[in-house]
Amino acid sequence: GLTYKKLNETGYAKLNLERAKYLAPRDLKIAEALAEISDGANQNFSKKFSNLLFTSLSNTEWIFFAILSFWLTLLLCVLAFWQKKKSNLPRVFAAIFGLNFLLSLAGVIYWQDASNTAFALSDDVLLKISPAANAPAVGALEKGKSVRILKTHGKYIFVKTADKKYGWADSEKLCPLW
């Protein structure tokens, strides 16, 4: 990713840096390089915050914490129910671990959603109205822009852009993150 960045190959740079971020989410070099080539200025505060929060742990770590917090919440709920001396402490901890479970679940969903991302590798990526070679274009993607993959049909991918435009793109001109 860093080599492609030096060569000004934005599409390949973003693709490989995002892949590297998935494998090493706390690597500062990756985060700095992505910040330099990304259009982060267009992101609102909540998007920047969620990216920072959910990329602080890897997908595997979020899954681990989701499973752990689920079972701790369940255990504390059972303990609170069977406890002879009524104390609020197990209920409080059950609520804390329950919230941790929901946060962990959001982290898992974030990483699963990120796996449905593709990047435009050239400037001539046309968004078409239907998955056919002679279909009229409704827009185009710049090199390095990311899109969300919604479905595939043959050699075409139906995508959604960051500015909420939809269209079919040739899969040979887009590269999925995974």
Radius of gyration: 21 Å
Q: What string gives the helices and strands in order?
A: HHHHHHEEEEEEE
Taking all residues together, what is the mean pLDDT?
85
Structural class: alpha+beta
Low-confidence stretches: none
% residues in beta strands: 15-25%
The neighbouring-strand order within the major sheet is 6-5-4-1-7
Helix content: 40-55%
Number of helices: 6
- Principal-axis shape: elongated
How would you name the oligomeric state of the polypeptide chains in this document?
single chain
The end-to-end distance, rounded to whole angstroms, is 15 Å
Number of strands: 7
Question: What summary fits the major beta sheet?
Answer: 5 strands, antiparallel
How would you explain this protein's 3D organization?
The strands form 2 sheets. A 5-stranded antiparallel sheet has the order 6-5-4-1-7. The protein has a two-stranded antiparallel ribbon with strand order 2-3. The protein is of the alpha+beta class. Strand 4 and strand 5 form a beta hairpin.
Defining key terms:
178 residues; alpha+beta; five-stranded antiparallel sheet; 7 strands; elongated
Brief summary:
The protein has 178 residues and is α+β, with helices and mostly antiparallel strands. It has six helices and seven strands; from the N terminus they run H-H-H-H-H-H-E-E-E-E-E-E-E.
SSE blueprint and pairings:
Elements: H1 2-6, H2 10-23, H3 28-37, H4 45-54, H5 59-82, H6 89-114, E1 117-120, E2 125-128, E3 137-141, E4 146-153, E5 156-161, E6 166-170, E7 174-176
Antiparallel strand pairs: 1-4, 1-7, 2-3, 4-5, 5-6
